[in-house]
Amino acid sequence: MHTVRLAYSRLAADGLVEMIPGRGTFILPFDLKNLARQGADFSSNTIGVLIPTLNPFYTPYLAGLEEIAHQSGYLLLTVYTHDNPHFMRHYTRQLISKNVDGLIVTSPISDILEQELDSATRPPIVYVDAPQMGDYSILMDNEGAGFRATQHLISHGHQRLALITGPLEWSNIHECYRGFRRAMDEASLQVDESLIVEVSEFTIESGYQAAIKILSRSPRPEAVFAAGDILAVGVLRVCKALGLQVPVDLAIAGFNNIELASLVEPALTTVSSPSYQMGVEAMRMLLRLRNGEHIPRKKIMFDTELVLRQSCGCG
Prior knowledge:
Blueprint: H1 2-13, E1 17-20, E2 24-27, H2 32-38, E3 46-51, H3 58-71, E4 75-80, H4 85-97, E5 103-105, H5 111-116, E6 125-128, E7 137-140, H6 142-155, E8 161-165, H7 171-186, E9 196-198, H8 204-215, E10 223-226, H9 229-242, E11 251-253, E12 270-272, H10 275-290, E13 299-302, E14 305-307
Parallel strand pairs: 3-4, 3-5, 5-6, 6-7, 7-13, 8-9, 8-10, 10-11
Antiparallel strand pairs: 1-2, 12-14
Helix pairs in contact: 3-10, 6-7, 8-9
């Protein structure tokens, strides 16, 4: 009996049960903050990684994370949240229950975790491509990317431009949108709001359906900036189906410079995102946090670069 009583006492100390003399022992409701507090002093040599989907953008990003994790003796536990608040909470709970040594979170809804976790007891967290987060973050110049791509399309003489983008309520997407509008404003060109189409996910099919919408407008746009190469591939598919020549009938530029961008016909002009380097720096920052090291910069911003190919009219 003494052993059983001791076990119950430890469960009560951990906040998992409540012992009431004369009444019994009762299981307490799940508390994510308590769970994070329990595992804070023990190392599992694992890192939890939350990403929205297995979009091609994340392939080099995960490779960067993996390289540093492997060098440091850590195993990555990667889950896909689909930018769904329920999945974010659910998988975070599961990862913390596995006593991960830290979390690397890539999501425009990362701020959900700030509400769920106690900053004093949670494992260290590094946020990636989430400009709204004030904590330790790895970022890229999304606004500069939107500006460079749009400015280049304008330099080819195009004045009626369309934008296919993710949800503008997401902070990283809105930065890219700001770049698009800034380039249009600096060229004294009017933005046609009917040519701005938001999609809920970054897939070829989403790009295809968005292109159908904008190409049904009259007059048609002269150029399209797709805020994701995978969306731009969908636009190329529509052009082929409609018999439109790219870039003669429609110029196209994308964003991310995924491997597929150089393989489609015509090859896609795009803005490269430093996905691999972002993964490397995110893991390095997390391990410094885990080791209690001083981090001089809480936010690291990577630049983006225009990559010229044939879809815009170059080459």
